[in-house]
Each structure stands twice: as structure tokens, then as C-alpha cells.
Request: fold
Amino acid sequence: MKRAIVLFGHGARDPEWAIPFVNVQTRLRQARPTMEIELAFLEFMQPNLATAVSALATRGASDLTIVPLFLAQGGHLKHDLPRIVERIRAVHPALTIDVTSPIGDVDAVLDAITHWILSATKP
Amino acid sequence: MKRAIVLFGHGARDPEWAIPFVNVQTRLRQARPTMEIELAFLEFMQPNLATAVSALATRGASDLTIVPLFLAQGGHLKHDLPRIVERIRAVHPALTIDVTSPIGDVDAVLDAITHWILSATKP
Reply:
């Protein structure tokens, strides 16, 4: 079994928008140097999720975790992402694909955001 | 001087999208029970930033920090937000308004995201 992670972001027209996503990818690659950690985007940026997953499957990935780097759950995560994953599963039936919660549902992430705001503002 | 914080999010059609933003607001209010901490949105949700700031000014706020709860800097933060803040400053010349970095530029937030992904996925 060969595991891989895909960090799934919204995407934007401005290339600099991707910087924080690349920074998370870099941190994960440092922590797991032998695991494939790729980025994929819903729109505006490449690759899209289907392309990223196909490339990983071609390179031998068998067990994939998609991490939505979204702050919150709206239509993109409730409707668009499940449809995309369903199509990917139809194309790659041998692949195990999990999707995590979005980062805005994670207490430790909200705590880090809160602590930073407290440190960046005067009481 | 009466300080206040406005948490500025993108907004979405789905009301549940706001939950993580409300959760950060709740944490901040617990940490600073006497400070006004309000939410405002770019689109789809109410109030918008101008409305939120006017309400705070009416209640006596004199020193405002806008915190963009965006993961990354694209057109919304580089172009839309400065234009909105410029118009707000014209309407409220006595108000001191600062805008912080977006949370995706904050190392501690990216570290928390990374640690959570490492804990939520198998090596």
C-alpha cells in the first residue's frame, strides 16, 4: 500500500494566492519525506483534483487522503467535492479515497487563529 | 479610546458556512469579554464591512482592527478590501482602522494546519 495526500484548495486567478498552500505542502513533505503530498484546486489553478489523483495513481498510489484546505463548509465542499470524488472513484475503482474535515472544523486550527489574533491586536 | 475587532470573511450562500467564523468570534469574546468583536462579510452574508463598522462607530468604537479570515491573498484582499476600507475611512475620518495579515500568512496557523493533517492521516 502506498499512501498519498492531496491538499485541495479553492484556487484563485492570482498565482500568489497559492503560497500558503505550498507552504503547508512543504511542511508536510518535511515531516513525511517519502510520502507524496500534492496540491489540487477546484478552479482557476492547476491541477484539478481528477488530474492530481490520476498522476498519483500512475505513480503507484493506492490509498489517498484528500484534505480540503477550506475554512468552512459551503456548496463547494457539500456538493462540488462529493461529485468530483464520485467521478474519480468511477475512474479509479482500485483506489482507496478518504476525505477529511475541512480545517475550519478543527479546534486546534481555530485555537491557533484565535491566539494569533489576540497576539496581533491590543487588548 | 475604545478598541474593536472585525473578523472579515468571504461569505457564502450556505448559512452553515459561517460556523467556524462564529467559533473564532466566540473564542475571542471569551478572551476579551469587554471588547466588541464582530463579524463582517464580503458577499452573500450580512453584515458587510461598511455596515459592521458603522454600527461599531455608533456604539463608540474609535480604534478598529480588521482581521481577514482568508487563507490566502488574492483579488479579494489585494483589491476589494482596500477599496472598501478607503470608502469606510472617508465616511468615518475619526476612526483609526488597521488591517492585519490574512491568517494564511501566519506561521503558527500553518503549523497548526500541518500538525492536524499529520495527526489525521496515516504515515
Observations:
- The CA atoms of residues 70 and 102 of chain A lie 6 Å apart.
